[in-house]
Amino acid sequence: MRRETLHAWLMLLPALVLLAGFTHIPAVETVVNSLFSTPRGMRPSHFVGLGNYRNLIADPTFWQAMRNNLLYAAITIPLSMGIALAMALLVQGRIGGRGFLRMAFFTPTVLPLIAVANIWIFFYTPGFGLLNQIGALLGLPNMNFLGQGATALYAVAAVSVWKEAGFFMIFYLAALQTIPPSLIEAARLEGASRWHVFRRVTLPLIMPTTLFISVNAVINAFRLVDQVFVMTQGGPDNASTLLFYYIYQVGFQFWDTAYAATLTVVMLTILAAIAIGQFFVLDRKVHYR
Predict the structure, then answer these.
(1) Quick one: pLDDT at residue 3?
(2) What is d(CA 277, CA 262) in angstroms, rounded to the nearest whole number?
(3) What is the pLDDT of residue 124?
(4) Which residues, including other chains, have CB under 8 Å from residue 105's CB and lie 6 or more apart?
(5) Which residues does the chain have with pLDDT short of 70?
(6) Among 36, 88, 179, 285, which has the highest number of CB atoms less than 10 A from its own CB?
């Protein structure tokens, strides 16, 4: 028994070393750094306790980034999950060109995020962008989607939904294929409509997948930085600044590493609280067997 236990730990050792070196130790160092000031030139860092957290509470840019991020999450999470489920239901059925549709829906997922952002910049370009060209045909005025505070965040969110829906579709499609056809046939023999079959049979059986996707969707909504950097750089006037992009600005543009660590701790705490809440709320509705 001891030999088997030793063998098991030796097999786990490489993964544990990587996990500790790239996850746990940096996380602990981030928490520690948030309690110190940022070293400047010949001036070393010194312990400030909760000083950085007090500065964070009084930081208007942080609160704006937080509001933007919550709005961005409220838009992208339900839309991407809903569209993903609709696409999975579509390509699950017996329709012509099913393989082509699956490939078309999944293609945005494999594109690099930087490439996606540049493609959509062309769509949003005032005057000759694709969306403005279509709008001109319909008699709509020319719009600067990325240059207006009222539309910049929604424009970025639309790109995220377009890219993420195909990724989530794969998980929903796999979940739908595990549902025994006999259950659906039995429900239809009882006279259940397609809506009732979906609501009473399909939806409960794919709830484990929905829980998994929702957790990943929340994480994706709070870790976006590349797309904002390429498309808007947080503008105009921080209208599209998200929390992770603000952390990037503070840490790599302003070189205030201690305050960036403080923002990171707050973001991780928020994500952990949301994830725990999701498990407590959604886990009651999950049928694992």
Answers:
(1) 81
(2) 23
(3) 92
(4) 87, 91, 165, 166, 169
(5) 1, 282-289
(6) 88
Residue 3 within a domain: no
Tell me, yes or no, whether 262 lies in a domain: yes
- Domains in the chain, number: 1
Domain extent for 101: 64-285
Say if 179 falls within a structural domain. yes
191 belongs to a structural domain = yes
Query: What are the Cα distances from residue 16, in Å, to 5, 8, 29, 177, 179?
Result: 15, 12, 18, 34, 36
CA 76, CA 42: separation in Å to the nearest integer? Answer: 45
Query: pTM of the full predicted structure?
Result: 0.88
d(CA 144, CA 258) in angstroms, rounded, equals 36
Residue 243 maps to which CATH number? 1.10.3720.10
SS (H, E, C) the chain: CHHHHHHHHHHHHHHHHHHHHHHHHHHHHHHHHCCECCCECCECCCECCCHHHHHHHCCHHHHHHHHHHHHHHHHHHHHHHHHHHHHHHHHHCCCCCHHHHHHHHHHHHHCCHHHHHHHHHHHHCCCCCHHHHHHHHCCCCCCCCCCCCCCHHHHHHHHHHHHHHHHHHHHHHHHHCCCCHHHHHHHHHCCCCHHHHHHHHHHHHCHHHHHHHHHHHHHHHHCCCHHHHHHCCCCCCCCCCCHHHHHHHHHHHCCCHHHHHHHHHHHHHHHHHHHHHHHHHHHHHCCCC
**Torsion angle, CA of 230/236/238/242, rounded to 10 degrees?**
-30
